[in-house]
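Quick one, T. Sequence first:
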Amino acid sequence: MRYHTILGSLAIVVSGCAMQPSASTSQEEKPAQPAPVAEQTAAAPASAQPAPQPVAAATPSEAPAAAPVAREPQEYEIQPGQCWVHAQVRPRPVQSTQEVVVKDSVNKITVTPAELEKGFKQVVTREGTKTYRIEPPTYRVVSEQVKVRPEVKRYIVVPAVYEDVKETVTLEEAKTVLDQCRAAGTRYSSGTGAMSFCARQVPAKQEVVKVKKLVSPETVRVETDPAQYKSVTRWIVDKPAQAIEVTLDPQYTKVASTEVVRPVEANQIILPEEKRQLKVTRFEGNARIVSRQTVCDPDINDDLVTRLQQSLVKRGFNPGSVDGKLGKRTLDALTEFQTANGLAVGALTLESLTALEVR
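Structure tokens:
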């Protein structure tokens, strides 16, 4: 097989033909010769068969209805003379417009001053209030027993008792491992990628350790010291203190004052808010790795590239000069188109030519 690199490290295009067995099994297998350039040019991409799709594959427009689950590997049937690429499908950008308020609405206020009038008014210089006259309390002497020390409980800890025993602990369970070996005729199937493995049993690893088993847990014994009392003499209130209410009258005086004849007035005008339209980009789907059939290098000619560039310009993607040369600007424009339409990026695939209507 011979390999051609398209767009740096983004994709590796495998160009070549399938291996065909020779007429005699005793002779060495030789690679089939690729089809003539003229035949490949006529066959791609107008007459090329559509890229085989994996069985039960979901269409690009279908969104997953549940959480992603493990998928079986996709298998394709490769035909002689075909070229394939292993590339990624990027999340598809979706453009929208969002309206943003850049300046809120504001009120413009016009104020008319208030009209004042001077005069005199009577002002309370000291407010009337109520106060109290206190009569002190009277006491009497009594004797009583007072607890000077409460009942005290003491806790005595009885230690736990353990017993030494031996236990067998499994450090590593028995397991089955696969070793690469030669079986099922794989030594004669080089180039197919098939490998064989032989199962081998690895015994468990164990160790005997000493363990302290609890015979009786730690406990607490309670001992109580009785309370202690003492006879004391104390004064208690015979008649509590009393508050007798006393009323004080307010005091007044005349002072110069200014009264409001007409209050201040404020009139407002509402200025509308200012808005701005912004372009917002969101992405649909997740990045995926897929296999797609591509145009082989011998089939890429100036006429095909020119039609590709014209189709990109028609759809709003800039490939630079329409000169029939598959350069960096043309590949960048093709990558932008593939990303916008949810296609595999980085190579001139047949699905991209179909989407661009390039025959």
